[in-house]
Amino acid sequence: MILHRITSKPHIRDLSGTGAMLHGGRWNAKGIRMLYTSGTLSLAALETVVNLSGNRLSQSLYCIELEFPGEFPISKIDNLPADWNSYPYNSATVHIGNDFIKKNGLCLKVPSAIIPSEHNYLLNPIHDDFSKVKFLDFRPLILDKRLIQNID
User: Contact 36/25 with Cβ under 8 angstroms?
Assistant: First the structure.
């Protein structure tokens, strides 16, 4: 399975989950390493637009393609809390992601809060098999200026 990620140039090859560890997110608390990826490039772009300010969007960003090996299971969430996609996010989703990492899962499929019928894939960079996730390619992200002109 091909996964997509968008990041700045200095972090193109950084798959350590340090950004999520430093800042936390919908699915992890600060201090927990997690690599956020999306099932499609368009969803990765929407996630980026929603989460970054116009200033940060106007800098050079890159699309990263990763290959998640098909032989490894992908975990899913059976029951999401009723307000899982609220903004700002709440501790219920953070607890789900933290628990997944603590139980040493490799990949967790979660719905996108932006488009719930599409999915993000949360990877555990400290899992023993994470090294089998392959970095395939990167290229500049080119966004239509209409997506960022009215932000901020």
Answer: yes
